[in-house]
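Box 3.1 — From sequence to structure: VWFA domain-containing protein
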Amino acid sequence: MKTHLVSCLLIIAGFFRLISAQCRQDFFFPHITSPFGCTGNFTGFQVSDCLVASQWGYEFSPCGEESFACSLKREIAANNSCPNAELPVSTVRVNLNRPTFVSLGINVPRPTLDVILLLDAVSSTRERIIALKPQIVSFIRQLEDVAENIHISVSGTEESFDQRGTSVLQRTTNNFAEAVQSLDEFERLPPIPDGPRASLRFLLPSITNTVGFRSEQQIVVLVGDTSGREPTCVFDRFDRTSFPSRFSGGQFSVVAVSIGDPGLNAPLPTQAPCTRFTPFVEAVTANQASTIANLTQGAFVEGFDADTLLQTVMNVSRNAPGNFGQPTGFDISVPQPFSNFRRPFPSVCDGRVQFNSTMGNRFFLAGPLETTVQLSISLANSGCMDGPFQCPVTVSAFRNNQFGGFRPAAARARLIVSGC
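Predicted structure (token representation):
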């Protein structure tokens, strides 16, 4: 019996250490800290706060001559591995006299991000791209080290290899080694004559189906040396387009990397009709790539330097539009405060508990961000009419712009509330 008891205590202690070790690593971190430190002039409110905190192991303890602190019991403090004396909690006992306050740490991660490397593959540009391969590889590997929630794809553009206007060398993946290997395939692409199919053609709506978007944000890194080629007459039409006239942005940002002459911002002249039935082809005005970058909250970069490009991409990601053009982040849902309505409009614990936060019951947070809100939990006036109770209360986080109509919770914090 004694051995069994010791084993149970060890299991409980180990479980407590496991919870404590999470600390602020998870999205939500319900915790408390000491209501007050060492003082000789504590107030009645502080005494009351320490009595409330006793449910988690806090007690009055002397800290000097005629001075006391509300401190965590030594055996509990010894097992708490969280910094700043933050004690994880999962249960709350409420009373009618005063609210019980719990701190809720919120660790909002960086948005998930797709980075699409779009490399101009025509013969006149390919040698420049191949010469930049060490820098491109360095960029891909550094990108992998930034965060776990980044994916990458690599495409060579111009002539259609898959009947959709691009050659997809690597669909969106979190396997960065595969992305690096796909650069070898880029070198082996068949010769592509210089033609009118500028790599900007890739930015039209077919992009989603082509590379397989899978994240909240998308950034296209366009690498090339000209804004377009001389147009060719195809089926009585020119196949070069002045993109700013058709391209108004969307769910992805463009980082345009100009690597040589004449450059992605170079103008192109108006062309005469290719038949008497077709109109003139529009001129490509100067600074087309910069215009597109601005339309999409992206950036224009001269030259390909891995370190500079990485910093540019991460800066763009802080302001990049998310899916459906919405800000990228999380809607935080705190249980509604007490209401006189019962079913079919139940409130927290069927109206027994009043629940709120310092940021209200609905608020939006964008990452990366680490913050703390205070939860206020108290017993409603009629909370004990049906006797003692125990019920779960959940704070939830929902991605605000993910694909699809139904939004499952991305994270939850669950507290077991009891009273009476």
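Summary of the box: Residues 330-419 form one domain.
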